[in-house]
TrEMBL record:
Record domain DUF3700: where: 2-237
InterPro entries noted in UniProt: DUF3700 (IPR024286), Ntn_hydrolases_N (IPR029055), TSJT1-like (IPR044828)
Membrane-spanning segments: none
Entry protein name: Stem-specific protein TSJT1
Amino acid sequence: MLGIFNKELVNAPKELNSPPAAAAHPHNRVVGKPKQVVPEECLKRFLSTHPNAFSLSFANNAATLAFDPPPTPYPNHRLFSGVDDIYCTFLGNLNNLSSLNKQYGLSKCGNEAMFVIEAYRTLRDRGPYPAHQVLKGLEGSFGFVLYDTKAKTVFISLSADGGVKLYWGIGTDGSVMISDNLDLIKASCAKSFAPFPTGCMYHSEGGLMSFEHPTNKLKAMPRVDSEGFMCGSNFKVDVYSKTKSMPRVGSEANWADNWGQQA
């Protein structure tokens, strides 16, 4: 899967951006390295190398989602669903999907991507629980990218167990890219990328935070690659730094409004 979001839509943590390696160390310039490409070129490569893949672009290309259906049988789900202008790509499995569907009043036949959309709509429209509480109730290995075309918001999350991997970075044009394909991210983001942190969630109105430890801030840990260049940052829970207390979300409140900036 591949998601591309312009910088007005997704404001990635500044620590994800790294100075160009050649500019930082001109004497280390390596001849013959692949040229960094624009995100649109990465999208073309993705579609050309996955014959059954498709893509959707929204709002004058402010957001693009691309998805490659998996072969069958496949050990982990790769799902794409769209309901009421909300689109979700889901990777992995939820072990407690049946009980979650029952809790949210969904069909027993509903898949993980459909559940994520419904859970998001519940949080967005009624806000009965904090978002981190909902995510902590998901059992299994998962990663998802959701785009709400009406609200123009992006919601991303990755399970804490590391069973699914996602990578995000800042492309040549400043747009934010996220994918499970590391090569695609490297091609457009050069050194400005990192693994998406496990046990965390990102919302375009609230930023990045840990749903495992919602009262702790996240700390950016600079990454250095094998060539000695800065390469984005990992984000780790800072056990010594607390956020302000999180208020209960009333039924009339918008859940994003009660989600403070974390990183």
